[in-house]
Write a structure and sequence with these properties.
The chain has 290 residues and is an all-alpha fold. It is built from four helices and no strands. The chain has a domain of 125 residues. Helix 2 packs parallel to helix 4. The radius of gyration is 78 Å and the shape is rod-shaped. The protein starts with a helix and ends with a helix.
Length: 290
């Protein structure tokens, strides 16, 4: 730009010096040929100068246009430079902000790296705990399967035992009914025996009253026999009742003992049979005495 301005200044000075020069007037000379040659030379020089002037004018016009364009471009460059400076300032501020953010990010990154390391350690510990829990879970699953199998087996055994208990209960009910019938029979026989004993005592007493006074000694003996008989009868009745009560208690106790049920029933039957035999023997003895 500066070089173009210097060239334009030089051309303007040269043009001004040519235009301000005084016109050349031909001098009288001795020889016309020499003047003609000088005129031709001057004319050639003038033509050359005019051509140069035209060229310089064109260059000057082109330089003016270039100058205007350069001024416009320079103004654009100035405005662009201002905008660039503004942008650079904004970029510097942005860069400072980014630098602060970067520093904060670095600090956060260091903190996060610490947390990540801590989380990795916790993850490893959690993984170990998870493996331990999985092993415990497998052990618990095996225990659960065994418990389920044992439960199923226990339920089957319980069902079998329930069926056995139901059968034994049904059988026990039948046995209890039979024993109650036997008890009622025994009680009936005891009642009959008691009535016969009372009837026998009343008959003996009537016969003793009809006897004569000279047989008082025999009467006394008979009274003693009667008293002894009543005592024996009452003792026998009490004994039978006690044995029956004990028998009933044994029957009810053996109801809760399924293992000894059959032996208890057999024992009860034997005792009842023995009791019936004793009652019959006593009845026969009383009949013989009468």
């Amino acid at each position: 730009m500066l070089h173009i301005q210097e060239s334009l200044s030089h051309n303007n000075l040269l043009l001004s010096s040519i235009l301000q020069a005084q016109p050349i007037h031909p001098q009288p000379s001795v020889s016309n040929s020499r003047s003609t040659r000088v005129i031709e030379q001057l004319q050639d020089k003038l033509d050359s100068v005019q051509r140069e002037v035209l060229s310089i004018r064109k260059q000057l016009e082109s330089a003016r246009q270039i100058k205007q364009q350069c001024e416009v471009e320079s103004q654009g460059y100035v405005e662009s430079n201002i905008q660039y400076r503004t942008n650079i300032q904004e970029l510097i501020q942005t860069l400072e902000t980014k630098q602060k953010s970067l520093d904060s990010t670095k600090r956060s990154t260091v903190h996060l790296e610490t947390q990540v390391k801590k989380l990795k350690d916790e993850a490893l510990a959690s993984r170990k705990q998870l493996e331990d829990l999985r092993r415990k879970e497998r052990v618990l699953e095996r225990d659960r399967d065994m418990a389920v199998m044992e439960k199923a087996q226990t339920e089957r055994q319980h069902i079998v035992q329930q069926e056995s208990i139901q059968k034994l209960a049904s059988r026990f009910d039948r046995e209890v009914v039979g024993l109650r019938q036997d008890l009622e029979t025994v009680q009936g026989q005891i009642k009959v025996m008691t009535e016969r004993s009372l009837s026998l005592a009343n008959g003996v007493e009537a016969k003793i009253k009809q006897r004569t006074m000279d047989r008082r000694q025999l009467m006394c003996q008979l009274n003693a026999v009667r008293s002894q008989m009543e005592a024996n009868t009452q003792r026998f009745v009490d004994q039978v009742r006690s044995e029956l009560h004990s028998l009933m208690n044994d029957v009810y106790r053996t109801a809760n003992r399924t293992d000894d049920f059959h032996s208890a029933v057999t024992k009860c039957r034997g005792e009842v049979s023995g009791l019936v035999a004793r009652i019959r023997a006593y009845t026969a003895e009383a009949s013989n005495f009468e």
